[in-house]
Amino acid sequence: MGYPILLTLHLLAALMFVGTVFFEVLILESVRKHVPEDAMRAVERAIGQRARRLMPWVILVLFGAGIGMAWERYLQLLAAPLESSFGTLLALKILLAVSVLGHFVTAMLLFASGGMTARRSHFIHISVFCHVLAIVLLAKGMFYLSW
User: What keywords sit in the KW lines (predicted)?
Assistant: First the structure.
């Protein structure tokens, strides 16, 4: 599969994932104050069920395309990431992405085992939000920052 296709798939999956995280943290949290608790639980349950069905596929495309892009274009650069600003920022972006994947797997396991609490969910959402924000800034910075 060619780099332009991998890049397009990666960007579309990133839009879906980042958009979902931003929606949940920045919009859904503030809606909570204005919606009755039972209605909010129903909305969160419905969104959660849909996200748990859709997000594994989004994550698969996101990471699959990212790995494909790294393999096709950036393998040598990643062999010595500290030798260039681009390589350093890309390696940091990958490290944060792996951490997000860890958060995602942890959340899925907690949901499956019944161990997900509101407090854990809130912590995971805020942590993933911060990671994703940093990843987006690094993705842009890779092309505009140099030292």
Answer: Membrane, Transmembrane, Transmembrane helix
Contacts 24+ apart (CB under 8 A), 124-130: 125/21, 125/24, 125/25, 126/25, 127/103, 128/21, 128/100, 128/103, 128/104, 129/21, 129/22, 129/25
Q: Structural domain boundaries of the chain?
A: 3-144
For the whole model, what pTM was predicted?
Answer: 0.88
Burial environment of residue 100 by CB neighbours within 10 A (0 to 12, 13 to 18, 19 or more): buried
Give per-residue pLDDT as tens, 35-63.
Answer: 999 999 899 889 988 988 999 999 999 99
Cα angle 82-143-26, degrees, rounded to a multiple of 5: 105
